[in-house]
Structure formats: structure tokens, C-alpha cells
Amino acid sequence: MKRILSILACVACVSAHGQKFEQLDQTPQMGWNSWNKFQCDVNEELIRETAAAMATNGMKDAGYQYINIDDCWQGQRDAHGFIQPDPKRFPSGMKALADYVHSKGLKFGIYSDAGAKTCGGRPASRGHEYQDALTYAQWGVDYLKYDWCGGEDLKAQGAYTTMRDALYAAGRPIVFSMCEWGDNKPWLWAKDIGHSWRTTTDITPCFDCDVDHKTWHQWGVLQILDAQKPLRKYAGPGHWNDPDMLEVGNGMSVNEDRAHFSMWCMLAAPLISGNDLRNMSKETLGILANKEVIAVDQDVLGIEAFVYSKKRCWMLEHLFIRNKTTWKDGVEIWFKPLGGDSWAMCVLNRNKEAKKISFDWKKEKVADSFSKREAHFDTTTYSLRNLWLKAGAGDTSKTLKAEVPDHDVLMLRLDKM
Ligand code: GLA
Questions:
Q1: Residue 314 belongs to what domain range?
Q2: What is the pLDDT of residue 359?
Q3: Are residues 312 and 175 both part of a single domain?
């Protein structure tokens, strides 16, 4: 009898594992994270003030939810191995902080790492996964970013599965944001493990840069964007490609910030702001809280955009035309299928000078074999709305002519008339 009971208990415990919280993150997660601006300089005042700012400055109203502390919140483990926050920086403890964030109608996120130490050298979760997941659940955590420093001698799929199972066993629905920098191609195996996975190394607030730190690189907006192009087929509701957190408001020009934000929305990327929300310019807030642009990111289909190129002879296109229309003149036209037979279009000017564009709709046919969506501009007219000017921009019966400023975008929404 005893044996049968223990077998039953074991079956119950196995069936309680082996999955992620499926209903979470059906549209890309939106929030804030401390790392890009503050790195290790985090404390409870910063988190409280940031939550208070997000709740009142229009961002919460625009859809932002998560207030996430990145690395360096950790103190030591106690005698039983339970992780404690740094007592100087978080004297009131994490439960009180989570309660405060929840009292603002927001959600609370935290950070750990699959190795023994985080990238910032704090205690991480290796060997403590179930204990940490239980602790997070008791604190009221809603989101876990899980990093990969010290992961070299681990198998990524196994390490991330262990933490997924630990979170599930702890019973509190927690968004699981995987951060192994794309090293092990998580898009091929993580759909049932994480709600999102980083696809590249860390971002830096620069539009077009590759910063060499000898043992690792940081990439600018264009470098990260280019790495997303082959990955769109792997993402969808509940399992997103994550091209890293936003650098809007962290030092790029307004044009660059606008282009960065627009492209992340075209990619259906998680929108995790990374600037000082307590102290930002009107322009920065205007970018982060533009609801019409955010609606492109949060569209119900969850399909990423692709770079448009005219279908012609493969040879010609490969040798000349694609080079000419996208790379050589540095202008890319991206299309994203939206619900209700609509589209978003984003003309990205990668150049340091303005470019004129002309797009004769009647001569173009946008077809996406992945989503099986097509736009026939010769037979169907779409109205155009400029999402940054928040104004109508005519329709597709006339050739689109525009000048796109340096490092900027023209972003339009197309709705069938
Ligand atoms: C890694 C991650 C970053 C950040 C730092 C913290 O570099 O990719 O996003 O979390 O660690 O140390």
C-alpha cells in the first residue's frame, strides 16, 4: 500500500512539472528594467520611484506593466540556502517591495542566472533552482529574467528547463524571460520553456556600432536588427524573440530613438524600457508611450515584420536589385501583417543623411509566404495613417512620396478601405 501511495505521489509530482505557464505573455511583455541605465546601482528607492513614475506618467496607461530589477539585488544565502536581498540596498526586503509595486497596479520582476554566479558576481541559482523559485513565489514575483553567465559547462536546454519546472512547481504564474544571448539558438528549442529568449549579445545605446570588449561585444540597434531577420518564423504569442531591452532615452538622437522603438514594435519584441523613468524628456516619453505604435507591437497576430523586396528573377535580385534597393542606398521597407487584414509599414533610413523615397503601390505586391498574407494594391485600396504624426496620410491609390530623415523612419498603418 505504502509503495502504491509513493508511486501515485511521484506521478502527481511529475505531472505538476514539465510545462511553463502557458497563458502568460500572449502579447509581448511591456515594462521597465534597471540594467541599461543603472547597472549594479539598484536600491529600493529607485524601484519604488520608478513604479510610481510608470503608474502616473502615461506608460501604465499605454500598456507597460512590469518593474524589473536586474542584476545586483542579491545579498547572501542564509544558513538554509535561501537567497536574501542585499540588506543595505533593500532593507525593507523583497516582499514589501513587490507589495508596493502591486499597490501601483503593476507587476514585479527579478533577475537570476543559471550559473553559480550572476554576471555581476552575485549568488545565482545553480543548484538552488527550486528553492529560489519558491522564494520568488513567496515574495510575489511576476517575472524572472534568467541569465547565462557561468553557463559554459551546463547544457542550456536542460538548465532552462530545470528553472521552468521549478517555477511551475512553485505555483505562482511567472513570466520566464530567458537570457542566454542566442548562443545555443533557443528559438529552435525554447518554445515550451520560456516566454521569450534573447537572440543576441547586449545592446548599447548607439544606432550603428559594434563595441569590442575583447571577450564579448555589445551591439547597436542596426546590428541587433539585422540578426533578427532570419528568426521571425520562430516567434508567436507566448514565445517571443527578444532583441534586448530598449535604449530609448539613454543618449541616442530623437530620430534614432524613434527608429529603434519603431523597429522593436515591427519585430513584436518585448518592450522593456531601460531609461530613468523619473526624469525623462517630453520626446522620450512621447516615443515610449505612443499607443498607435505600441498597438503594432501588441497586435493580436503576433507576427514579426519582414524586409520587403520585389519578386523578380532570383539571379537579378540577388546580384543587383536587393543590393540596390535595400543595402546600397541604406533604405529598408518592412511590412508586418496585422489583425483584421491590416498592415504596418516601416521605411527605415539607415543612412546618416535624409533619403527621398517613392513607392508606387500599384506596381508592388506584398506577399508573405510565412503568414500566407498578401496585399494586392492594384485591386484593393488601403488608407494610410502616419503613426508618429498620428494623422491620416492619404491612401494607396497614389504613389507614396516622402523624405525620411537620417537614422529615422516613416511608419504607416494600412487599413482596407
Ligand atoms: C548580461 C545580460 C544583461 C544584464 C547583465 C547583468 O550581460 O545580457 O542584460 O542582465 O548580464 O549583469
A1: 306-416
A2: 96
A3: no
Rounded Cα–Cα distance for residues 296 and 413 (Å): 8
Residues 350 and 383 in one domain: yes
- CATH of residue 349's domain is 2.60.40.1180
By three-state DSSP, how is residue 249 classified? coil
Q: Which residue's CA is the nearest one to ligand 1's atom 11?
A: 119
User: By alpha-carbon position, which residue is closest to atom 12 of ligand 1?
Assistant: 119
Residue 310 has what pLDDT? 67
Which CATH number covers residue 124?
3.20.20.70
Q: Say whether both 25 and 173 belong to one domain.
A: yes
- The residue out of 297, 325, 347 marking a domain boundary is 297
Q: Which residues pair with 252 in a beta bridge?
A: none
- What digits encode the pLDDT tens for the residues 164-203? 999 999 999 999 999 999 999 999 999 999 999 999 999 9
Report the catalytic residues: 147, 202
Q: Give all strands (DSSP E) within 341-381, no chain letters.
A: 342-349, 355-359, 365-368, 373-376
Return the residue whose CA atom lies nearest to atom 3 of ligand 1: 202
Q: Which atom of ligand 1 is nearest to the CA of 148?
A: 1
* Helical spans, DSSP H, in 57-206: 59-62, 94-103, 129-139, 156-170
Kindly report, residue by residue over 106-148, the tens digit of the pLDDT: 999 999 999 999 999 999 999 999 999 999 999 999 999 999 9
Q: Are residues 147 and 9 part of one domain? A: yes
The DSSP symbol for 417 reads: -
CA–CA gap between residue 72 and residue 199 (Å, rounded): 23
Domain end, chosen from 245, 265, 297, is at 297
Interval between CA 263 and ligand 1 midpoint (Å)? 22
CA of 147 to the centre of ligand 1 (A): 7
For the cut 90, the answer to whether the pLDDT of residue 220 exceeds it is yes
Cα 400 to averaged position of ligand 1 atoms, centre (Å): 42
